[in-house]
Amino acid sequence: MIKLPPLPYAYEALEPTVSATTMRTHHDKHHAKYVDVTNQLAVEKGLAGASLEEIIAQAEAQGERKLLNNAGQAWNHAFFWTCMSPQGGQPAGELARLAQEAFGGLDGLRARFVQVGADHFASGWVWLVVEDGRLAVVDTHDGETLAHKPQAPLLVCDLWEHAYYLDYKQDRKGFLERWFDNVANWSFVEAQLAAAQGRQAPWRFGLAA
């Protein structure tokens, strides 16, 4: 059985960028439901006791779409909580160098991240990844996850309406701009970059960052 991970900060810690009301609903209702359904389906498919990463890999290999969608959402949300911090911060060191190389600096990275997220049609996720040694911004639809893909995920923002609608209504771009500026966890991004470069272990579901 996988467990719903607690938030790494208080519900109100990300205010005013993300309200405590949004965080309570998002974590305690939406994320909890994905975890519950994943556990139910994993038992039915003989995967009880497997890690979430193993469940995702097996669900994809076996074409179990419902399990894959729920397990992917469980993984994505846990990663998303860790991608936010009340301290925010700025890219530094190797991360800043790669951002300069790929996007012309932090402003270019911000513009690309916000554009891809704002232009994404319907539900999904916008990611900063390492691909072939370079930074890139990609989007995924619905419950698709990068937990087991060649791109190494560094940062993600949730594009489903339940992530922002209570606070921003239909203004997804405004949400993405404030999210990137105020709560993106650059210390975590740097740790994920180190993992992508083989300097430490990557984040895994159920393990502290």
Quick tags:
about 210 residues, mainly alpha, Helix Hairpins, minor pseudopilin epsh fold, three-stranded antiparallel β-sheet
Notes on the protein architecture:
- The model has no long low-confidence stretch (mean pLDDT 96).
- Strands 2-1-3 form a three-stranded antiparallel sheet, sandwiched between helices.
- It has helices spanning 20-44, 52-61, 65-82, 93-103, 106-119, 165-168, 172-182, 186-196; strands spanning 124-131, 134-141, 152-158.
- The chain folds into two domains: 20-82, Fe,Mn superoxide dismutase (SOD) domain (Helix Hairpins), CATH 1.10.287.990; 93-196, Iron/manganese superoxide dismutase, C-terminal domain (minor pseudopilin epsh fold, 3-Layer(bab) Sandwich), CATH 3.55.40.20.
- It is built from eight helices and three strands, in the order αααααβββααα.
- The longest helix has 25 residues, at 20-44.
- It is mainly α and 209 residues long.
- α1 runs antiparallel to α3 (65-82) and α5 packs antiparallel against α7.
